[in-house]
């Protein structure tokens, strides 16, 4: 299986993290989004959105990071990352849908305004956009923090695909200035994930 990724992409970090934890060796190819490689016709055949991550397995190509981590877990041997019971699986899917619909969109505003905009030469951060983002971000962060106050991992009592899908968005939290002050349970949970060899081996600098 081959993963098209970019080292700074939090979405592409998910399948890399999942593969490392599941013991799956992936062939990887960096797509230099900043050089426009996402729009190459050969890549658009694999993913018409021109985005990473994109996975190919033979003639099957799959995009959307949460679909990819589910595919990897389904292909792997039985793993506690994707427990074999309906309730845990539905719970994991719940967090993955929440990540896509609420958490990532809230976080991405900081990433765009505070990092990407200057990299792309699109001017200074827009204070109005950041102010609007704060409200959405705090609603999500409070929900996540309150949940993690009750349990160490998002689903059950060990790490699952839910953590793999929700945590990577935090990889740029400091440089993108996410307003995380006071969310101690999120910090403690993320610190545990950051210490995993699978996390350090998928750092952009690794
Ligand atoms: N919902 C998608 C988001 C993927 C995404 O937005 N990837 C960004 C990199 S972080 C990308 O490839 N952007 C290139 C573009 O929009 O042209 C997923 O979870 O896979």
TrEMBL record:
InterPro entries: Glutathione-S-Trfase_C-like, Glutathione-S-Trfase_C_sf, Glutathione_S-Trfase, Glutathione_S-Trfase_N, GST_C, Thioredoxin-like_sf
Residue ranges of every copy of the GST N-terminal domain listed in the record: 1-80
Residues annotated as domain GST C-terminal: 85-206
Molecular function GO labels: glutathione transferase activity
Cross-referenced PROSITE patterns: GST_CTER, GST_NTER
Superkingdom of origin: Bacteria
Species annotation: Methylocaldum szegediense
Keywords annotated in UniProt: Transferase
Family: Belongs to the GST superfamily.
Top-tier EC class: transferase
Keyword Hydrolase: no
Stored Pfam families: GST_C, GST_N
Name listed for the protein in its UniProt record: Glutathione S-transferase
EC number: 2.5.1.18
